[in-house]
């Protein structure tokens, strides 16, 4: 039975001091969970009171996951503005409180932005956008490094009702172009260059390259970061530093309906090109702010640091929107964990007196390899709470994080969620939940997980299955931009009437959830989500490649590595040079974080007689689990498997 295995795991009780100080202790957690069950409308109405509404809503929840009557609406007739909730309403008491601490890549350089300054900056950027013709509902692409201007640009869009689409600065020109085209944005905000780990990233040059395929873009606003001399196209490109001189530092906020779009964020799925996940105004902000307070036991003014890039959903919800809605001091870090040394994270914690620190397991595993020394030589005494997100954390890394970084004093919240869910859905609460290393513990009040078998039948008790959610929450995505049908088919048809997460999970006898990873063709590389189909289509776009199949395999630092099986065109010789070339090719086509770890040339791929590639077999080979290849008798040509096994490449 499953449970035997689970009961071995060590349990870390809630520290007494935490139970006392917590906004929600164990009893409170139970009460909230019961309350939302008995009176959902009352519960959700109360949760949304944390925001300032220009016009109150009359109904909190209005949802059906059934195809005949499919709709997801929260607080639908309420009116509010996100930038007002993140800035203006804090001004009377906190004009001079630091909103953003910017820690640059260079450890000698940092800056702070107060709420008062943030207000003026956001208004200026909003006015610049308006002057360039941006109106409510228009899409604005943001391709910026981790500098305060990135948060300013997002909030400026929110102020005037424009819909932002932030594209991670690590994406290639091609990936950027695809995202600009898909949402048809006429304007791009970028920087001359980004800086990471002592190296520059040619953001403006990437934009120029991307725009060769985006004739619809009329305006490029360039924020100066390095002052590099970059080409400027007259009539199209302008420096923000010039534009902002011409506008006022006040800007009336646009009253937005709760269900008006706030942003689009592209994410990888199991098929086709990345999907534009659309989030709306009222529900998203309610959920980002509520979970930021609950999960991190957050009180206004505390110094909160989420290391994620704003190009990913974690950066949206826990660098910008959640913290700022809660009047936080949020740290924005431009650099990388190991530059200039493996002590960097902890030095930044000491320098800015960080109280709550939130990062990805891959960073922890990478730092763990350098041993305890780089951690031990810092103080970290300001730290009270640690968090992880993005992928399952292995118990070894969890224990190291707990013992070495947190000195057994700081609870760890392992937060499970997705781009689609807007913010956290399952996590321990530091004052309420005993911790089990590697488990994201329990659903937050109002979240209804269900495990189902392949046929969609509900599974009870301690068991593994496919993870669904049977009901909505305010921060749920509302559609795939431009393709509502794809939204419904992707998430609500595998198991009709339920949202399918794409994750597998195990529930133990205590009702704790353990995410086992994706059950679809999505892989998670260093916490970055990638579709194997995307990498395959990048590979087959190469002139030498006839066919490709990509799978993930366990990687000690990245979580998963990228293993590519590539069939070359008939007249192409399989050389080491070509192998390296193909890795570089994918890197350039998608972005550096998508570079394959392994390329194995395959004269043939294992296919069924109907031509379907049997990925199960390829996964086993990539994992080096050759004893257990399963039934290969249904293959069109079973001998291809022998060739693949004999020529397996070690990373
Ligand atoms: C927030 C974010 C979502 C996928 C998700 C799951 C994995 C995220 C996790 C986790 C185990 C956790 N994931 N958090 N797995 N434990 N605490 O990462 O969004 O980039 O959309 O990725 O990441 O597989 O389905 P996103």
Automatic annotation (TrEMBL):
Report whether DNA damage shows up as a keyword of the record.
no
Domain (Acetyl-coenzyme A synthetase N-terminal): give its ranges: 30-86
Its GO biological process terms? Answer: acetyl-CoA biosynthetic process from acetate
Annotated catalysed reactions: acetate + ATP + CoA = acetyl-CoA + AMP + diphosphate
Q: Where does CoA bind?
A: 196-199, 314, 338, 526, 587
Q: Which GO terms describe its cellular component?
A: cytosol
According to its UniProt record, the EC number is 6.2.1.1
Q: Where is the AMP-dependent synthetase/ligase domain?
A: 90-470
| Domain AMP-binding enzyme C-terminal per the UniProt entry, residue ranges | 534-612
Q: Which positions in this protein are listed as binding Mg(2+)?
A: 540, 545
* Binding sites annotated in the UniProt record for ATP: 390-392, 414-419, 503, 518, 529
Q: Origin, by domain of life?
A: Bacteria
Q: Name one GO molecular function term.
A: ATP binding
Name the cofactor(s) required for activity, per the record.
Mg(2+)
Q: How is it modified after translation?
A: Acetylated. Deacetylation by the SIR2-homolog deacetylase activates the enzyme.
Per UniProt, the keywords (alphabetical) are: Acetylation, ATP-binding, Ligase, Magnesium, Metal-binding, Nucleotide-binding
Q: Which InterPro entries match?
A: Ac_CoA_lig, ACAS_N, AMP-bd_C, AMP-bd_C_sf, AMP-binding_CS, AMP-dep_synth/lig_dom, ANL_N_sf
**Modified residues annotated as N6-acetyllysine in this record:** 612
- UniProt key word Protease: no
Pfam families membership? ACAS_N (PF16177), AMP-binding (PF00501), AMP-binding_C (PF13193)
Q: Into which family does the record put it?
A: Belongs to the ATP-dependent AMP-binding enzyme family.
Q: What does this protein do?
A: Catalyzes the conversion of acetate into acetyl-CoA (AcCoA), an essential intermediate at the junction of anabolic and catabolic pathways. AcsA undergoes a two-step reaction. In the first half reaction, AcsA combines acetate with ATP to form acetyl-adenylate (AcAMP) intermediate. In the second half reaction, it can then transfer the acetyl group from AcAMP to the sulfhydryl group of CoA, forming the product AcCoA.
- Its name, as the record gives it, is Acetyl-coenzyme A synthetase
């Amino acid at each position: 039975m499953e449970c035997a295995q689970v009961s071995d795991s060590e349990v870390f009780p809630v520290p007494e001091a935490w139970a006392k100080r917590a906004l929600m202790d164990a009893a409170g957690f139970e009460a909230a969970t019961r309350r939302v069950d008995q009176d959902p409308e009352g519960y959700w109405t109360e949760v949304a009171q944390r925001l300032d509404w220009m016009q109150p809503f009359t109904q909190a929840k209005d949802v059906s996951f059934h195809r005949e009557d499919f709709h997801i609406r929260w607080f639908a007739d309420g009116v509010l503005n996100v930038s007002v909730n993140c800035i203006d309403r804090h001004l009377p008491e906190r004009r001079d409180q630091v909103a953003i601490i910017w820690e640059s890549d260079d450890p000698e350089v940092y800056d702070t932005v107060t709420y008062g300054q943030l207000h003026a900056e956001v208004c200026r950027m909003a006015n610049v956008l308006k002057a360039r013709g941006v109106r409510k509902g228009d899409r604005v692409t943001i391709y910026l490094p981790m500098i305060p201007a990135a948060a300013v640009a997002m909030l400026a869009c929110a102020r005037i009702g424009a819909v932002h689409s932030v594209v991670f600065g690590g994406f290639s020109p091609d990936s950027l172009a695809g995202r600009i085209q898909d949402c048809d944005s006429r304007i791009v905000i970028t920087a001359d260059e980004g800086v990471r780990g002592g190296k520059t990233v040619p953001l403006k040059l990437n934009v120029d390259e991307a725009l060769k395929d985006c004739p619809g873009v009329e305006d490029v606003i360039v924020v100066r970061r390095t002052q590099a001399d970059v080409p400027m196209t007259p009539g199209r490109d302008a420096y923000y530093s010039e534009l902002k001189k011409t506008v006022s530092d006040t800007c009336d906020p646009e009253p937005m309906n709760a269900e008006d779009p706030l942003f689009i964020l592209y994410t990888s799925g199991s098929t086709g090109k990345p999907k534009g996940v659309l989030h709306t105004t009222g529900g998203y902000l309610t959920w980002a702010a509520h979970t930021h307070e609950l999960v991190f036991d957050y009180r206004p003014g505390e110094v909160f640091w989420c290391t994620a890039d704003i190009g990913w959903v974690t950066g949206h919800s826990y660098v910008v929107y959640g913290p700022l809605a809660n009047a936080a001091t949020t740290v924005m870090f431009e650099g990388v964990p190991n530059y200039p040394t493996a002590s960097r994270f902890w030095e930044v914690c000491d320098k800015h007196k960080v109280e709550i620190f939130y990062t990805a397991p891959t960073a922890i595993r990478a730092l763990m390899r350098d041993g305890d020394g780089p951690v031990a030589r810092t103080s970290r005494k300001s730290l009270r709470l640690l968090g992880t997100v993005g992928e399952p954390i292995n118990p070894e890394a969890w224990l190291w994080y707990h013992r070495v970084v947190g000195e057994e004093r700081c609870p760890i919240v392992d937060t499970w969620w997705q781009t689609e869910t807007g913010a956290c859905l399952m996590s321990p609460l530091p004052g309420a939940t005993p911790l089990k290393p590697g488990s994201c513990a329990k659903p937050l009040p109002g979240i209804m997980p269900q495990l189902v078998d392949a046929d969609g039948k509900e599974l009870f008790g301690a068991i593994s299955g496919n993870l669904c959610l049977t009901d909505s929450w305010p921060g749920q995505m509302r559609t795939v931009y431009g393709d509502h049908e794809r939204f419904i088919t992707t998430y609500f048809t595998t198991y009709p009437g339920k949202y399918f997460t794409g994750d597998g999970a195990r529930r133990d006898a205590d009702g704790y959830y353990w995410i086992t990873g994706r059950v679809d063709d999505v892989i998670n590389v260093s916490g970055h989500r990638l579709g194997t189909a995307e990498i395959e289509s990048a590979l087959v776009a190469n002139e030498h490649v006839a066919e490709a199949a990509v799978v993930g395999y366990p990687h000690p630092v990245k979580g998963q590595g990228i293993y590519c099986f590539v069939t070359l065109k008939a007249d192409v010789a399989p050389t080491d040079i070509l192998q390296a070339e193909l890795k570089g090719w994918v890197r350039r086509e998608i972005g550096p974080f998508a570079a394959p770890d392994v390329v194995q040339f395959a004269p043939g791929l294992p296919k069924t007689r109907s031509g379907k590639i049997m990925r199960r077999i390829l996964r086993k080979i990539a994992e080096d689990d050759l004893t257990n290849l399963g039934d290969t008798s249904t293959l069109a040509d079973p001998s291809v498997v022998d060739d693949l096994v004999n020529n397996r490449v070690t990373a």
